[in-house]
Structure formats: C-alpha cells, structure tokens
C-alpha cells in the first residue's frame, strides 16, 4: 500500500497496463498476481521483463557520427584535424564517418534506469539480480544524467515503437522516483510526485474507456473558443480536455477533467469547497463546446478526483444554466474490480440517459 494516497500498488500496475497497452502481452501477465511492498519493485519487474523481451528482438541502433584518426580514409576527411596531425608528425587522417550504434538516447536511458533501480534499497534482491543479468548487454552504451534527458525531443518511428512503453517506465522512474540532494548525488524518493501521477491518472482513464467501451467515442479533444464573429484567438489558451466521452450519435457528450491532488478541497472562510479553478475550467469547456453544437445535443461535465485520505471529499451534482456538472472521487485504494465498476457506471449513465431521450422522442 502506498501511504500518501492510499493507492494499492497492484492498481498502479493496472493503470500502467491501460495507459501502455504493451503491458497486456503474455510476458507481463503474471505481474498482476504478484504482491509488491514497494512501487520500486513493480517498476523493476516491468522494466526487467520489457528489456529482456527487447533483447530478443535486438537493441535499437541508430547512425551516430564518429571522429577518429585513421591510417586509411573512411567517410570524409576533416581538413583541420588532418593538418593538426601533420604538424604533430602523425601519419593519420582525421576522418568523420557514420556508424550504426547501440549507443543512442533510447538505450542510454534504459541503462541509466537499470542502474538506478539496482542501487535502490527498496528493490528486492531477486529483482536486482534479474536487472544485473541484463546489464552486460549494455556494455557499449553510455549512461546519461537524468537531468540531461530531453524527454519531449525523443522521436518514435516505426523501427523503435517497442521502446515507447519502456521509456515511459523509465520516465516515471527517473523523474518521479529520483531526487537530487545539495551535493549533486541522486537518491530514490518515496513515490511519484503529484504532477506525474496526475498524467498517469488521466491517461489511464482515457485508455480504459477506449479499451473497454467501444460503444462510445473516448478521446482527448481540443475545444474552440466561442468567439464573436471576426474575433481572433490571439493569446487565448488552448482548451484541451483530459477525457471526452460521446455517444455514437453524438447526441450526448461528457467532458471529464481528471484531478490528482494531495487535497481535493480548498478552504474558504473556514469551509471546505471544491477547487474554484477546477470548477471554472470544466464549466468553460462545457459552455464553449455547447456553443459549437446545435441545440439538440446535451453537454455535461465531470470533475473526477483521485480519492485521498482526507476526511473531506468532493461529491455532488450541480445544474448550471442547463448543463449538469458532476463532482466525484475515484478510490484507487480499493480492489480494481470496484474501480472498474465505478468507471463503467459513468459510461452506463451516459448511455442510459441517451436511451431515455430516445424513448421520449419516440
């Protein structure tokens, strides 16, 4: 059990499995039956299985540019380097050439993550040994400082798609589990921080609906501002929903804003209230999307908080200028079958209300 949010570690696996569909492959199947005391162990097992699978297919290789003094020409001659060799009475050509290499950013990130998990005291010995057995396959790969990784610049192509899930796990490990102290040394933190867990929480819910409810459309959409004619959108922020559920006939739409906070309410005048900016945000999404659609469509919104151990949890249904705004929590500390039931209930309500509308029209 993870203490700060009361999340079952097994549920972290389920969240990852939906967020990254590769975890549904056979070699990961038995992970869901294992018991993990620390999340570090969960990441170690997932990464170990994934890297072992990737090694069977071969590590990704990319062309890198090398500069070397050679006795025979290779690639192109670097004039400045060759002249320098001549002045130093070295009978060598300074050449620059491209070579396929495993020493690229993809494998560097994996090697760095493997070493960090091996050093982590919360990873069990048997799991460390599994990771150590993979280490020799990365002898020709350099390590990289976690703070030097530019995650947004990593480009996935057809020949490296298998790395998407592996690097996603590495991202959670290197950015969420590692902190740097004043001396510059890295050590493991106790848990993923709030920001990164929020991203996983959002992606999990979206991918759950995509995988389990083919009877609806589940997407993360951008909503245009309902501006007056001739008005420019200059400097207006992008309205990007976390999850948008729509019935197949598009008659009903539910915009879900997934929130993962340490505290799900705010204090105003000694009273617990819903975070005002969350409510303003989802209401703005609903009204601007409604303005784009014709009158026979129903748009509603929902704030779906991950439940905390705080005694005050937001819950309620509010009707605002003809739109329904729901606020509720999802308890990630319960068995996943209960979480599944709660998520299915949200979808079923959307579909049932659609059936009621259709019966009324008939």
Query: What kind of sheet is the major sheet?
Result: 6 strands, mixed
Radius of gyration: 26 Å
Structural class by SSE content: alpha+beta
Number of helices: 9
Low-confidence runs: 1-5, 179-191, 356-362
Q: Could you tell me the mean pLDDT?
A: 85
Structurally, the number of domains stands at: 3
Q: Report the sheet-strand fraction.
A: 15-25%
What strand line-up does the widest sheet have? 6-9-10-13-15-14
Using the alpha-carbon principal axes, give the shape: globular
First-residue to last-residue Cα separation: 51 Å
- Tally the beta strands: 15
Please give the share of residues in helix.
25-40%
N-to-C order of helices and strands: HHEEHEHHHEEHEEEEEEEHEEEH
Keywords for this entry:
362 residues; alpha+beta; 6-stranded mixed sheet; 21% strand; disordered N terminus; disordered C terminus
Give your account of this protein's structure.
- The structure is a single chain.
- With 362 residues, the protein is α+β, with helices and mostly antiparallel strands.
- The protein folds into three domains: 9-60 and 104-192, no CATH class; 62-101, no CATH class; 196-361.
- The chain is built from nine helices and 15 strands.
- The two termini are 51 Å apart.
- Mean pLDDT is 85; it is low at 1-5, 179-191 and 356-362.
- This is McrBC restriction endonuclease system protein McrC.
- It comes from Butyrivibrio proteoclasticus (strain ATCC 51982 / DSM 14932 / B316) (Clostridium proteoclasticum).
- GO terms for molecular function: endonuclease activity.
């Amino acid at each position: 059990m993870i203490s700060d949010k009361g999340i079952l570690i097994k549920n972290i696996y389920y969240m990852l499995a939906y967020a990254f569909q590769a975890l549904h492959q056979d070699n990961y199947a038995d992970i869901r039956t294992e018991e993990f005391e620390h999340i570090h162990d969960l990441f170690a097992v997932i990464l170990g299985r994934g890297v072992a699978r990737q090694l069977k297919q071969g590590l990704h290789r990319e062309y890198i540019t090398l500069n070397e003094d050679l006795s025979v020409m290779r690639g192109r001659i670097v004039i400045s380097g060759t002249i320098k060799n001549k002045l130093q009475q070295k009978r060598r050509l300074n050449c620059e050439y491209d070579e396929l290499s495993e020493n690229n950013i993809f494998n560097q990130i994996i090697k760095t993550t493997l070493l960090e998990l091996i050093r982590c005291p919360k990873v069990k010995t048997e799991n460390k040994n599994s990771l150590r057995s993979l280490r020799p396959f990365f002898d020709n790969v350099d390590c990289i400082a976690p703070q030097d990784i530019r995650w947004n610049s990593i480009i996935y192509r057809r020949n490296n798609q298998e790395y998407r899930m592996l690097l996603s796990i590495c991202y959670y490990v290197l950015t969420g589990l590692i902190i740097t102290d004043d001396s510059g040394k890295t050590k493991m933190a106790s848990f993923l921080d709030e920001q990164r867990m929020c991203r996983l929480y959002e992606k999990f819910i979206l991918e759950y609906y995509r995988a389990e409810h083919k009877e609806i459309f589940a997407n993360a959409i951008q909503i245009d501002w309902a501006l007056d004619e001739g008005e420019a959108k200059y400097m207006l922020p992008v309205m990007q929903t976390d999850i948008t559920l729509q019935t197949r006939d598009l008659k009903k739409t539910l915009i879900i804003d997934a929130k993962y906070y340490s505290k799900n309410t705010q204090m105003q005048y000694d009273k617990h209230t819903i975070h005002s900016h969350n409510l303003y945000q989802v209401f703005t999404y609903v009204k601007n999307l409604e303005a784009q659609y014709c009158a026979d469509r129903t748009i509603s919104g929902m704030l779906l908080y991950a439940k905390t151990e705080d005694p005050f949890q937001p819950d309620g249904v509010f009707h605002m200028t003809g739109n329904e705004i729901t606020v509720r929590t999802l308890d990630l500390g319960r068995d996943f079958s209960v979480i599944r039931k709660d998520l299915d209930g949200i979808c079923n309500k959307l579909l049932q209300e659609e059936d009621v509308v259709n019966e009324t029209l008939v």
